[in-house]
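Reference record
================
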Amino acid sequence: MQYLPYLEQSGFEVRYQALLGQDYVANLATGRGYSRSAIARAYFERMALLARAPDADLIWIYAEAFPYLPASFERLAFRSGKPVVVDFDDAFFHNYDSSPRPLVRALLAGKLQPLLAGAAAACCGNEYLERYAKRFCRRTMLLPTVVDTQLYRPGSNGRGGDEVVVGWIGSPSTWSYMRPLLSVLQSLRAELPVRFRVVGAGTQAKADAFPGLDFVTWSEATEVADVQAMDIGIMPLPDEEWARGKSGYKLIQYMACGLPVVASPVGVNSTIVTDGTDGFLVTDPDAWRSALKRLIVDAALRRQFGRAARARIEADYSLQVHAPRLVGLLQSLAQPAEAARSR
């Protein structure tokens, strides 16, 4: 969505349809359930849209058109005969080929392969995803997750109190990555003037609460301010298939706001963070504790790392840098289709 202004400035008219709406996102952020009838209705609406063969020069699909339905439904995207671009920033294919449910693996393991094989191009959030896409798609582009650095920027206030704020932002589905670290955080809280700010973990995560651990409800309207209220950002990850396909959005948010970071060296995290320059890459609990303590007690080091982190995102993970690349790709695909339609 953040690319839309750039696309429109470049002459694209963009019409979009989310499969599920903002109320679904709100429920996801809090861990609440969602109406199955509303989901079924959304699927039927998308089927009807694609079956009508939309009058467009290009169809751009994020991840997949019909989660957990067979590949035959994905082929509806090609009904119009126009180029299709697939864009994904998580290892969605592992939802199927690595599912713990045998029936899902048996029926859907190769679900995304026909979509990628028929696509004119695939935009991939990191090298792990691009390696997968290249097996099926004839044209790929590494398009990292980015933020608008005019929006995500170091805060002018909200930090610098008596306690250092170590923060995490995510969703209920990723809170499990934080649980192995909680004993480390508690020990730091007992020793140092530090608080922990958790954004978007959902109501169930409050069972893990301890003094000094503050839970904040995620909101799109306050997301940037919530990150700016932190002094250090953290991103623990297990070394697992799904985690290796993640695109480091948390790190990019933190670093764009001028925060030093501590992260697991899993997947793209090792590319985003330059260890010892803008953050620390750590593995075991002792290393996590040592890295966090070093940043908590040393305000000058936090500032030094924070400046380097901000520069890193401006140079390599900003909307301003990558929007022209995406525009160029879509123009190269849409123009032949537009010319054919005008003949």
User: Anything to note?
Assistant: The chain has a mean pLDDT of 93.
